[in-house]
Amino acid sequence: MATGKTRREHWGSKIGFILAASGSAIGLGNIWRFPYVTGANGGGAFLFIYLLCVFLIGLPVMLVELSIGRHGKKNPVGAIKKISPDSKWSLVGYLGVITGVGILSYYLVVAGWTLGYFFKSLAYSLNKVHFAQFVSNAPTQSLSFVLFLALTAFVVAGGISDGIEKMTKILMPILFFLMILLIVRSMTLENSMNGLKFFIIPDFSKVSGKTFIYALGQAFFSLSLGMGAMITYGSYIDDKSNLVSSGFYVVFFDTLIAVMAGFIIFPAIGGAPSKSGPGLVFVVLKNIFLKMPMGELVAILFFALLAIAALTSTVSLMEVAVSYLIDEKGFERRKAVFLTSLITLFWGIPSLLSLGAVPSLTKIYKGMGFLDLMDFIFGNISLTLGSLLLCLFIIFVWKFKNAEKELSRGFEKFKNFSILWKISIGILAPLAISIVMIYILITGETLG
Ligand code: PHE
User: Fold this and answer.
1) What is the CATH number of the domain that holds 315?
2) Does ligand 1 lie within 6 Å of residue 222's CB atom?
3) Predicted TM-score (pTM) above 0.85
4) Does residue 310 line the site of ligand 1, with CB under 6 A?
5) 394 vs 217, higher pLDDT
C-alpha cells in the first residue's frame, strides 16, 4: 500500500488505464442522464450537437487533464503546484477535490436507487415499487447509499492496480455484454423503429441556443472533465504511454456507450418520451420492462448494468480526494479512504433525504431540492468553470509548448495535429464555456 513517501502507484497496463478511465467516464451520466436530456431536447438534433461538443471540446480538454496529470504525477492540487509553484492556480486543484466529493455526495444517492431496483427485480417485486414512495423512504435510501459508499470505499482502498484497475477489467466487459443483450431485446420490440427514429433522425427545428448549452454541460459531466478526475487518473500513467490515443479511446468508448444506451431506451419507449426527467429510467423504463416478455429478466440485467456503470464512476470521484490526502497530507491510503467516506456520508445525508423524506429539503432554491442543487453547483457550474480554468492555465501559465511536449511523449506525431488542439483549447473551448457560464449565471438554469 502506497503512502506519500513510497513510490507512486501505476496502472499495470495501457489497457488497464483505458478501462479505468472509461469506467470513470461511463456512468449514470451515460445511461440515466444522457437519455433524458436527449429526450427533453429534441432527440436526434441533440445527439448531433452533443457529438460535436464531445469531439471538438471534450477530447481536447481531456488531453489537457491527462497531460497535467502525467506531468505533475500527483493529485490535481499537487500537479498544478508542480507546474506553477507559489501561485494561486492550485486553487483550481482544490476546487476539483471539493467538486469530486460534492458530486459523489449525490451521485451515490442515485447509484443507491440502481441497487435498490436491482434487488427488487431479483426478488421479482419490481411491480410493487413506486418511485416517489421509494425515494422518500429514509431508511431504504440511507441503506442503499451506505451500501454503495462501502462498495466504492472497498475498491478505492485496494489501490490503483489492485483495486480500481482489477475491478474495471472485470466489470467493463460485463457492462458491454449486458448492453448488447439489452439492445437486441429493445430493437426486437414492436414500436422500436419509432423510438429509434426519434433518437437518430435530427429535427433541427427543435434546436436553440439552449441545446448547445445542455450538450456541452452533458459532455463535461459524461467525460468526467473539469474536476481533476482525469488529472488524477493521468498521474498514474507511465511516461512512455501515448496519452493522445488513450484519451481518444476513453472519449470514444464513453460516447459509444451513451449512444448504445439510447439504442436501448428509445426503442423500448417506442417514440419520443412523453415525460422526460430523472424518472425516465426509473419510472418509464421500469413500466416498459414490466410489460415486455421476459421483462423481469431484462430489468435485472438493466439495473445491474446501471449499478456497474455507477460504481466505476464513484471510485474515480473518490480517488481524487484520496490521492490528494495521500500526496499532500501524507495519509496512508486506507485512512484517506475512511476520511473521504465519512465526509461524503455527512454531505450526502441532506441529498438522500431531499426526495420526500424531509419536506423542507425538497425545495430549497429556485424550485430545486437539495440533491438538484448539489447537481447544479457541482455537476454543472463547477465542472464548466473547472474546464475553463484549466484551459486558461494551459494558455497563460503552463504554455502550449510545454503541454505539447508532454502530449508528444510516447506520440511523436502529435505535432501534426497539435494545431487543432490549440485552436480548441485556445479559442473554441474557452469561448463556448464562457457563453455557457454566462447563460447559467443569468438564468440560474440547471443543465441536467
Ligand atoms: N462521468 C460520470 C458519469 O457519466 C460522472 C463523473 C463526473 C465521474 C465527474 C467523475 C467525475 O456518470
Assistant:
1) 1.20.1740
2) yes
3) yes
4) no
5) 394
